[in-house]
Specification:
By secondary structure, the chain is of the alpha/beta class. Helix content is 24%, strand content 26%.
Length: 327
């Protein structure tokens, strides 16, 4: 399904200090491409054409990478919280474009993070469908966690709609027992989102504008907040450290290998084989242990690759064997 009436805001203005890197977090590579590319690609698969990324730190570098991916750029000049970040993208979703004299045509907007590269098109599709079906002002993507310590808990009413998000430090013992948590991915009615954001106050210890305050405002106005659950917690994990990057890489690499094997590629000892996201391999090729095929490499059919082969941005024709080699 193509969602021409839906836009998306990708939050990516954070410094990513826990990565302890000179490179902004969202440009750290994951199976051969920066993690933010996975978020943009998922939106592209959904047919969402109105895509705005909110940048701050190293925005020129990120903009250069995204220059051919049809993503507009909003700038958050100071790190004043997630609510302020979303508000910095508001002018891209005006209800009426005075210069062109036409309505924007964007009724709903996804809000998601640039550091959640494992989120799937199917999960975002379910979020959008639930949002439309419920008629809610906002719909939150949640997930069940056996150990939800440190995460905001989702408190629902008897009808299953969300009343509020309670942070760990503010939660009662009963609320801490809740295992449903907020993933930070949402779908909003555009008008409801920016109307509520105009009422958000920075009256908190951090002096920031919290996007989650929007839900309390919508509830106070009689608005409805729905939810849909992700299938697994790893799919919605945010990458905040190099350890988490390694976890995501292991998960994604296994998906890549499984997809290749499902399509007729033999991989001997998958735990020792590394294949990047954009690699293409033909049917009946055999990949032996301790092999890496990286970058934009293309391997033909009926090839034998490895053991101990490393292929980077290369083309291997049909029927070729590459053993104990690097090129």
């Amino acid at each position: 399904m193509r969602h021409k009436d839906i836009g998306a805001i990708i939050l990516a203005a954070g410094l990513g200090k826990r990565m302890k890197s000179k490179l902004i977090k969202i440009l750290h590579p994951l199976c051969g491409q920066p993690m933010v590319a996975y978020v943009v690609d998922a939106l592209n698969e959904l047919g969402i054409q109105k895509r705005v990324i909110v940048l701050g730190h190293q925005r020129e570098r990120v903009a250069e990478f995204l220059s051919n991916r049809n993503v507009e750029i909003a700038v958050q000049e100071k790190p004043l919280g997630t609510g302020d970040a979303v508000k910095s993208a508001e002018h891209f979703f005006q209800f009426f474009n005075k210069e062109k004299g036409i309505a924007s045509g964007i009724d709903d907007v996804l809000v998601l993070s640039g550091d959640t590269p494992l989120i799937s098109k199917d999960t975002l599709e379910r979020l959008i469908e639930t949002h439309h079906r419920s008629g809610a002002e906002a719909t939150i993507l949640t997930v069940e966690m056996q150990n939800p310590t440190g995460y905001g808990r989702i408190v629902k009413n008897n009808e299953g709609y969300i009343l509020r998000i309670v942070e760990e430090t503010d939660a009662s013992p009963e609320e801490k027992a809740i295992k449903t948590i907020n993933t930070g991915t949402y779908c909003f009615k555009v008008s409801a989102l920016f109307s509520a954001l105009s009422m958000v106050s920075p009256a908190n210890a951090q002096g920031e504008y919290y996007l989650t305050d929007v839900f309390e405002i919508l509830n106070s106005q009689g608005g409805k907040i729905a939810s849909v659950s992700a299938d697994s917690s790893i799919e919605v994990m945010g990458i905040n450290s190099r350890k988490e990057l390694a976890i995501a890489e292991t998960y994604l690499r296994r998906q890549i290998l499984d997809n290749l094997m499902d399509n007729g590629v033999t991989i001997v000892s998958p735990e020792t084989v590394f294949i990047d996201k954009n690699v293409r391999i033909g049917q009946d090729t055999i990949i032996y242990p301790f092999t890496a095929i990286l970058g934009q490499s293309v391997v033909g059919s009926d090839c034998v690759i490895g053991p101990h082969a490393c292929i980077i941005d290369a083309t291997v024709e049909d029927g070729v064997s590459v053993v104990f080699s690097s090129f």
